[in-house]
Amino acid sequence: HTASLHRGPDLWGSTALEFDPDQFLDPRVHEYLTPNPFIFPLFNIGPRICLGQQLAYSNASFFLVRSLQRFGRIELVEEAMLLRGKVPKEWKEEEGRFTDEESFDVCAML
């Protein structure tokens, strides 16, 4: 049960039921989190790992294998590539973009 997991005195000490946001700040971080890195196991490790993770891995693998089986040859379409690896001028003028961006031609042979 998630609520009891995050309020267990065996993990959080005698102040487990008290509201104390400072418990995540130094130096108490080392007292509670460092000795037990699995203190928050929701959806990432252990018995509470995401139930769909293996299904997602299987589906991604299946999609990749079937795509490679179906198509004997995969080519880059030159019209879709940037001109000689240059970033288009209009990209540099867009808000939030860096002026020193570069792109590189990448090609893979199967």
From TrEMBL:
Keywords, in A-Z order: Heme, Iron, Metal-binding, Monooxygenase, Oxidoreductase
Coiled coil: none
PROSITE patterns on file: CYTOCHROME_P450
Database matches in InterPro entries: Cyt_P450, Cyt_P450_CS, Cyt_P450_E_CYP52_fungi, Cyt_P450_sf
Manganese as UniProt keyword: no
Cofactor(s) required for function per UniProt: heme
Molecular function (Gene Ontology), one example: iron ion binding
Keyword Signal recorded: no
Database matches in Gene3D superfamilies: Cytochrome P450
Family designation: Belongs to the cytochrome P450 family.
Protein name per its UniProtKB record: Cytochrome P450
Gene source species: Dendrothele bispora (strain CBS 962.96)
Organism taxonomic ancestry: Eukaryota, Fungi, Dikarya, Basidiomycota, Agaricomycotina
